Predict the 3D structure of the following.
Amino acid sequence: MIEVRDLIKTYPGATSPAVAGVSFTVEQGGFYTLLGPSGCGKTTTLRCIAGLERPDSGMIKLGQTVVVSDRIFIPTYRRDIGMVFQNYAVWPHMTVFENVAFPLRVGKQKVAGSEIDRRVRESLALVGLAGLEKRMATQLSGGQQQRLSVARALVREPDVLLLDEPLSNLDAKLRERMRSELLLIQRRVGITTLFVTHDQVEALSMSDRVAIMDRGLIVQEGAPRDIYHAPANQFVAGFIGSTNLFAGRVISRDAETGQALIETAAGRIVADAEGHEAGADVMIAVRPEDVVLHRGRSAGGPEAANSLGGVVEIGLFTGVSVEYHLRVAGQLVQSRVSSRIDFTRGDDVVVELPVHAIRVFSMAGSEPAAEGLAGQDA
Amino acid sequence: MRNRRWNWLVIPMLVGFATIYVPAIVSFVLISFHPSTGPGSVGPEWTLGNYAKVLGDAVYQTGLWRSVALGAITVAGSLILGFPLAYYISRYSSRFAIAVFTLLYVSSLTSIVIRGLGWITLLGTTGPINGILQMLGWIQEPVIFYGNLLGLSIAMIHYTLPFMVLTLLPVMHAIPTGLEEASSGMGAGFVATVRRVVVPLAMPGVLAGSLLVFAMTISAFVIPRLVGGLTLRLTALLIDQEMRTTYNYAIGSTLASVLLLLVAVVVVMASVVGGRSRVAR
């Protein structure tokens, strides 16, 4: 288990804190991801947990041990952690075997030679590097070096595994394969894992829980599905996946159903707008894959709410899908549809925005929305 | 290889070497195989007599051993002081680290004569170092530093330290700090990290610095002459004496050739050790 409370870290000379009060808990055996753009504080948070940075204040607990508090700072080498770095950080002057044996050799309890041998081989077998013990670490390929660093991080059987962008240096194909392999290893070992990445696909596909970070704060935390389908604010909606954003103003709201009529540059849109009163400036978000396209012209009229008339500007065929850019009145809308659907530039289409797929944020959307953090600070 | 077209840039240096340096070395090596026929001249016949004399004579033997001992002590001393210093400077870009580096660098620009004379004053029987040691009650009688290897080693370590640090620094800088972070992340304390990660990876720099310091020390003349005095006869001083006082060019050249051979042997030994450590990378 990892528990972080009110973590604050400001680097010397910086005007704003890199981590500005972060709290979260990783359940025993869980796979938890800190996701955010560079400079959001995710790596600093991980380095504080590892002990490579000393936080200004806050509490960090690994397993049952408090490693950081007002009075405690346990140095990195005495924390029960395994770490994997972005640039592998395997030791170039050692063989594969010696790299993995290192944590057992330097540890406090002496491990017998035969025991070292057994555990190193076990660890290397786990990551699929059995038989390469005698190679020099630098003779391995990038993917193999990263496996080596995973084996090295796990050989001590630590309480927690800290992964700092471990896949970013690999090429696209390998990164995809390592994603599932890494997750499989984590599941097999059952180790509590904290993963730091800027890659949303990694975060969404591997994690039990994801925390989105922005400017030193967690702006939303939840299961990957919830984060994707119910982004708490405009930042999350924009950061995770691609999103159509429309600025608008609430014209009227039905207090019973919670549905509101919103005036936008693309036309009038009906959406669930809980908490947004008439007259409020809002931002509405729709994912391109939720935008439905029909051939033909919009019928118009009130019954055709959320069915807007548009013109195809361009279509980008990717094989799996086609991404159409549509001009809807004064607004550009993106739609991702099956690649069997074929429109050409200039075609008239009806652009349908399903009510259930629309998220409404207040205009000051880059601030953490109150509802998104409710229950999390408690 | 890729930049072969720039190879011509080294031509001026090679020309200088080929026309001045190499003939000079060849001529004194050749002279060492001819017998002395009086002050300033050698005979035409070939002989190994000079080597027999140099290697058999107690004065020359002592000189050689002292030179080698001084070289070894100086290498050890500058390494013990220089390694932590270079590591510190390479890892902490604080103002203090920069000040330390600047101080070291500036001191290496000071005239070697001034530094030699400075050490004579500092290490004298009534000098500040003896004064402090006596004040602390660590010694009763003043320690004699002048005219022996003790004082000379101190002065030579001071002289060579900047060269050691400047050789180690780029190697230390080239070691990614991530490798040390990985080490502490895998449970190694500071000492274990330095011993198992930093030292092995800094080995090329250690070898290069040691070679440089050793070669500088056994051929050093000014500081040994000033701090070692006339009684501590090192090979470099003996060469000067043969060449400029007794005009025995044959013996002077022989001593110089032996010194040259000594450095060559150390270089070869070091590259064998270095080659082995490179294989292990």
